Fold:
Amino acid sequence: MTPEQQRAYFAKMKDSERKSLFKKLSDTHRTGLAQDTIIHDYPSIFRKTAQNKGCMGNEKGFTRFDKNGNPEKVEAVCGASTQAIHDHLKQKLGNDSSEEITGYYQGIGSEHSFAIPTDLDDEGTGGMVKHEWVKLPDGTIVDGARGQFLKDNLKRDLTKKDRLKFIPPMSPEQAMYLPRTYCKKCGTGLLPNQSCRQCELMDKLTKEAKKRGITVKELNKERMEQRL
Ligand SMILES: [Zn+2]
Structure:
């Protein structure tokens, strides 16, 4: 069977049959079918993305109206598109072990995005923005909001090809996508390679209090009084 025939066969199956077959396939195969589904059903994913973002989505792209009723282009739709893509996969293929990933993007074109920059920018690492994407079963990244990383003059006539990008597991571009990590102790979200300042401070206080034979609470009170 050619991939085309395979796809047609797969599409014809009943939802329940398709979902159960999908579960049994290898990660590579599941990723391929998930990719096909996303590409094929992109118009519906596009509409859902606009809906999630609370803006208009038509052939002109994503548009929002500001306070004065002036239209403005919106391409930083990573959260909205990630949710739309993942919801679509769940609906079409069942619980398919694709994941929504929250993290950061640091790479080509990040300076053109209006997404929220991270505080790492203050430290001069430059161009890291908050980002979200879908991870397919074999680790392939699906970025449904790549349009934001294009130069402003290119943002006018974007197509599916500009907005939707698949990044295979072995691609060097995977390094531009940094999932958020969490502190093992307190669960706070952390930037890549960042240690938890809160827990570090707490450890320091605990050590000092222990050394002096007082509680952390007493030590804190003492410090507060010194500050007054
Ligand atoms: Zn912590």
